[in-house]
């Protein structure tokens, strides 16, 4: 039986003093007229939430928040996770993850944040502290548009697939001792979680391809078939028309919906410094098109990381 996918959220009229400027055909918008350091009216917060559902990734230019300001803003959208299930936080800030590309630690693969646990984040905030004079952008992809791009027979096939996500797989060789230590920390506790390949968004009802770099195998398929099928599906996520490229300036903040996007930070800035701080909002357990929730294959439920699991 053929099913229909719910339409994306309708456009809305934002609150007064709140301007939305689209920056991509299928994903991305800049938000103007707000100072995130101020106390935001609940109507404004609701408007930002609506814009996030519609545009998937929101850019707030020139905010120049500190860690407290970023934590305060992120907490408007739900309870916060700790920085990461295995990687240390900024000292004294258990919810803040340093993303320090200048030390050879580069997230240059397509992924959705922390999908190797049963309850990945709802949303991620990234704040730019140090950016290189060239390169160092962040690409964000619309996984719902990717699902809609699939030919109908492939879409129906994907609806039935499950993928095992893990933080322990064959990474590229570390560039230096610092990157090697980061790798050791990253896999110090092993997680394997089965998620539906097609996730139903808990708020919008949209379907999106929930895969990315941590998805390493498909349930019921061997390694070769898994790689080929995941590569095919991933090619729809990373089509140029489904992407937005964020060029950073110091003080910028980006908020993106981790439930229906992937992102990638190209390694194109040599040995130059690049430092972002990440704060993530706790999410729920993904469910597939038939309502079946994700389940743990190996490891625990990461209750130390996300309050939803606790």
UniProtKB/TrEMBL annotation:
It comes from the Bacteria. Its cofactor is Fe(2+). Pfam families: TauD (PF02668). One of its GO terms (molecular function) is dioxygenase activity. Keywords: Dioxygenase, Iron, Metal-binding, Oxidoreductase. SUPFAM superfamilies: Clavaminate synthase-like. Residues 20-280 form the TauD/TfdA-like domain. InterPro entries: AtsK-like, TauD-like_sf, TauD/TfdA-like. Signal peptide: none annotated. The keyword Metal-binding applies. Belongs to the TfdA dioxygenase family. This is TauD/TfdA family dioxygenase. It comes from Streptomyces tamarix.
């Amino acid at each position: 039986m053929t099913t229909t996918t719910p339409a994306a959220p309708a456009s809305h009229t934002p609150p007064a003093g709140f301007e939305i400027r689209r920056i991509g055909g299928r994903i991305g918008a800049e938000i103007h007229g707000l100072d995130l350091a101020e106390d935001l009216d609940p109507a404004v917060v609701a408007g930002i939430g609506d814009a996030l559902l519609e545009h998937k990734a929101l850019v707030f230019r020139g905010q120049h928040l500190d860690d407290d300001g970023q934590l305060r803003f992120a907490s408007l959208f739900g309870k916060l996770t700790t920085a990461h299930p295995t990687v240390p936080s900024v000292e004294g800030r258990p919810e803040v993850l340093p993303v320090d590309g200048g030390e050879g630690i580069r997230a240059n693969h397509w992924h959705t944040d922390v999908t190797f646990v049963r309850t990945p984040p709802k949303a991620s905030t990234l704040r730019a502290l140090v950016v290189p004079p060239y390169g160092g952008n962040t690409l964000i992809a619309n996984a719902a548009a990717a699902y809609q791009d699939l030919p109908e027979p492939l879409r129906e096939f994907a609806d039935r697939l499950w993928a095992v996500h893990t933080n322990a797989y064959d990474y590229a060789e570390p560039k230096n001792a610092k990157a090697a230590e980061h790798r050791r920390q990253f896999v110090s506790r092993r997680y394997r979680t089965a998620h539906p390949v097609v996730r139903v968004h808990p708020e919008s009802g949209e379907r999106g391809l929930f895969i990315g770099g941590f998805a390493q195998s498909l349930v019921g398929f061997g390694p070769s078939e898994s790689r080929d099928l995941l590569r095919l599906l991933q090619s729809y996520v990373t089509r140029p028309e489904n992407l937005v490229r964020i060029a950073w300036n110091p003080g910028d903040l980006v908020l993106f919906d981790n439930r229906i996007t992937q992102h990638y930070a190209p390694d194109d800035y040599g040995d130059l410094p690049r430092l972002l701080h990440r704060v993530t909002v706790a999410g729920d357990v993904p469910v597939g098109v038939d309502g079946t929730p994700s389940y743990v294959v190996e490891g625990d439920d990461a209750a130390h990381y996300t309050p939803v699991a606790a």
